[in-house]
Amino acid sequence: MREALAQHIDLFLIIIYLLAIFLFGVLFRQYIKNTEDYFLAGRALPWWVIGMSIIGTNIGAYDYVGAAGGAYRFGIAQANYEWLGAIPAMVVSALIIIPYYWKNKVYTVPEYLGRRYKEGVRVIEAVIYGVFLVMLLGIFFWASGIMLHTYIGWSIGFSIVITAVVVGFYTISGGLAAVAITDVVQLGIMFVGGFAVAGVGFVKAGGVLKFFQALKASHPQHLKVFLPLDNPAYPWLGMILGLGLVLSPAWWCANQSIIQRTLGAKTEWDARAGMLFAAFPKTLIPILVVLPGFFALMFAPAGAIKNPDQALPWVVKNFLPPGIGGLVFVAFIAALHSSVDSTLNSAATLWTKDIYQRYIKKNASDEHYLLVGRLLTFAFIVFGVLFAPFTEKFPGIYVAMQTLLSFFQGPTLATLLLGVLWWRATGWGGLIGLSSGVALAVALSLFKVNFLYVAWWSFVFSLLTNAIVSHLTPPEPPEKLRGLVYGYLERDREFARAVERRING
Amino acid sequence: MGELLKGLPLYWAKIIATLLYLLLALWVITRPSHFIFRGSRERKRWKDLRLWALVLIGIQIILYLIF
Which one of A28, A112, A192, B14 has the minimum C-beta count within 10 Å? Predict the structure, then answer.
């Protein structure tokens, strides 16, 4: 009886949620008139929508499961991915990088790099991230199918199609505006679900202090944020150098699906404030993803959890009362959808703006590119649905794709930072620095070097190569660098003379 | 170098992380006002992004000192 009631509540919550986000698509369709509306929400997003949408995009269902598993195994060191591995980079992104994207009115990160360096850099970046985002969709759809099958009992195929129809509908019809607003709602659901789990856990333990005292007594290492150098997953030096100084800035400064929200800001201040505002909920994410791992560690009977990734499903299935379990399940689905919609919209933007408009059909009408953007979004949904079952046959495919991404993160960051901060970096410096850094990252991975160190050394190598090649090649002309490089206006003599003339009347 | 670092007590990791946060805070404080408020119609106190960043960094330092 109790189980049947719980199932009905879960089903009711999920149907209400699916209907609500479907309506968003209908509501926002009327506002889409051109590509700027579709890809950048008409450059009208306020800071608080940008901030919440960034975090909704950032946290996916895989993060929930994987992070709870990481906390179950290694403890609060897992929170480094939300703290040291995010907050400093978000501050740097807001105060240095984002103003340059926003001022130049670009649609994509590769577009900025192409203007700053040369077309080759734009093509490499666009293809890498374009392919990565499209492949990621298949994995997201499969995860959605598995979740709905496990909790509601729908077949995996039907669950995937339902997800594709609902997310596809509001993404195609409402563009970035619909994606960003649904992200806000989805983030709210995620936090309500996360706080509900925390509340239930602490009540069961007899209070917050009692819980942490018991955890400290039984698992003292689990409350240490840094782990020794011989830890296989989270060595402290790798966390600071690889995660804190390379992977995290690369993610928060150069990832299209994150940056795209700030490009849709109504003012430069909103763009920067949006990124900083996102850092506040980001600080609280460990409550959502680390605490369930701790609850599983403290409350699960011995032998109940064989794989750390089962920590969160165990908590949802065995720990929560009816209704709360359904709420947390809806929070999972919301987390997954907020990642799928953003990935779809960003992939369509990259392929339309950086590849199609640049190399396949130049100078067509804006209506044409809007249609292409929508058709590409639809094509990626179809590809994602068809590709989804293959991810089951390759269970390591998600890990493989993350490893693949780590090949590019360090060199991309080096190219971006030198491009923004150093006027002397040249087109050839950027191109050779980027490609040689990727080559080194691949070589290091073949020698089984920890991916955190791969990111660090490929970043350093790419930075040095870019600097050396730039010194050996002629500087870029001032008219090319204007507005693209930090502090360049002070160096620009022509601009200084123009200002002087204006001051002197 | 790896052997040398292995000999360091774990609290050095906390010291390095805290120093990095303090350096970032120092950099944030030195950002000029005209840059911080660019794009905003009014210069209200709550719109000063340096304060937002400093609160975030302060929370981080506290968290890393606790854990």
Answer: A192
